[in-house]
Automatic annotation (TrEMBL):
GO terms for biological process: cell wall macromolecule catabolic process; defense response to bacterium; killing of cells of another organism; peptidoglycan catabolic process. The lineage of its organism: Bacteria, Pseudomonadati, Pseudomonadota, Alphaproteobacteria, Hyphomicrobiales. It comes from the Bacteria. Keywords: Antimicrobial, Bacteriolytic enzyme, Glycosidase, Host cytoplasm, Hydrolase, Membrane, Transmembrane, Transmembrane helix. It catalyses: Hydrolysis of (1->4)-beta-linkages between N-acetylmuramic acid and N-acetyl-D-glucosamine residues in a peptidoglycan and between N-acetyl-D-glucosamine residues in chitodextrins. The chain crosses the membrane at residues 266-292. Belongs to the glycosyl hydrolase 24 family. Gene3D superfamilies: 1.10.530.40, PGBD-like superfamily/PGBD. Its EC number is 3.2.1.17. Residues 188-243 form the Peptidoglycan binding-like domain. This is Lysozyme. GO terms for molecular function: lysozyme activity. It comes from Shinella kummerowiae.
């Protein structure tokens, strides 16, 4: 029988990597996201949400249920991602290869079935395809992200060996991997979170990649200061996205402000104008623009400073 759909274990594997926040949040680049990575950027997601009366995702306000999230995932996979994998892979595909590939294209986009790893698969070079998938497609803006690197490796292992990385037949749908599997080595994503927490004044203890009680307490304190986060101590997609947004805000403001001020200063000098005042004004405007665009980050910072607790 030709495999054309994702198995329940495959969906659980995908959910482990995507998470399943049932309240809308902003991803690291500011895109409203809900459930298992659902955004309005996808036609299939827009259609599935519209069927449930949702036409706009509002961070901290739009909510769905766990049942709705699973229903939407099934609809989105069937409409967009499973057909892409079927069309771009050998008809002899195995179930674990289908599941791994759906997870990959769900994260990378359906165009990923035209990339080198998939071509190797179509050419019958399964081991080479797995190796290439596991060592590539793990960067954003030229920087390797620990979470993406881990995901690609686990997808490659699933693709080649059928290892579902913590998903078992007895594991309930939607339960995070962290709740059932004890880690055997430091987690680079936890370490990344510890570094950001430390820089923001929340003390997670040693920056070692282990989710200890002190790190969990720091995450809860961070979540309590942030309006769109649930204070559960879980380092899920919403919390990790907000940490990354917080980490990038000051750097973006400084970088854009300095570069814009320098450029404006040169132009003003060439025109014989008081370049110092103009450059300063441009810098203020740029920083103000960044502050407005990431006003949710500043709101969370103010909550932290004032000790305000916000519940969703």
């Amino acid at each position: 029988m030709t495999i054309t759909t994702t198995s329940s274990r495959g969906r659980a594997f995908l959910r482990d990597h995507e998470g399943n926040p049932l309240t809308c949040y902003l991803d690291p680049v500011g895109v409203p996201t809900i459930g298992q990575g659902f955004t309005m950027l996808s036609d299939a997601v827009r259609a599935a949400l519209a069927k449930r009366g949702i036409t706009k995702l509002v961070p901290g306000k739009t909510k769905i249920t766990a049942v709705q999230s699973d229903e939407i995932l099934l609809e989105v996979l069937a409409a967009e991602f499973e057909p892409a994998v079927v069309e771009g892979s050998p008809s002899s595909r195995k179930q674990h290869q289908m599941d791994a590939s759906v997870s990959a294209v769900y994260n990378l986009g359906t165009g990923a079935m035209g990339w080198r790893w998939a071509k190797l698969w179509r050419d019958g070079l399964v081991k080479e395809a797995a190796a290439y998938l596991g060592s590539h497609y793990n960067t954003a803006s030229g920087k390797q992200l620990p979470g993406l690197a881990r995901r690609r490796k686990e997808e490659a292992n699933l693709f080649l060996n059928g290892n579902y990385a913590g998903v078992t037949s007895s594991k309930p749908e939607g339960v995070p991997r962290e709740a059932t599997v004890e880690p055997t080595k430091p987690d680079p994503v936890v370490k990344e979170a510890q570094e950001i927490l430390t820089s923001k004044g929340f003390n997670p203890g040693s920056i070692d990649g282990w989710m200890g009680e002190k790190t969990k307490a720091a995450i809860i304190a961070y979540q309590k200061a942030h309006p769109h986060l649930v204070a559960d101590g879980i380092l899920g997609p919403a919390t990790l996205s907000q940490l990354r947004r917080d980490a990038g805000t000051v750097r973006e403001a400084v970088t854009k402000g300095v570069s814009s001020a320098a450029g404006s200063g040169v132009l003003a000098f060439a025109a014989g104008l008081p370049w110092g005042w103009i450059a300063a004004g441009v810098a203020i405007l740029v920083v103000g623009y960044v502050a407005y665009r990431k006003r949710d980050v500043l709101e969370r910072w103010w909550n932290t400073v004032t000790g305000k607790t916000v519940d969703v």
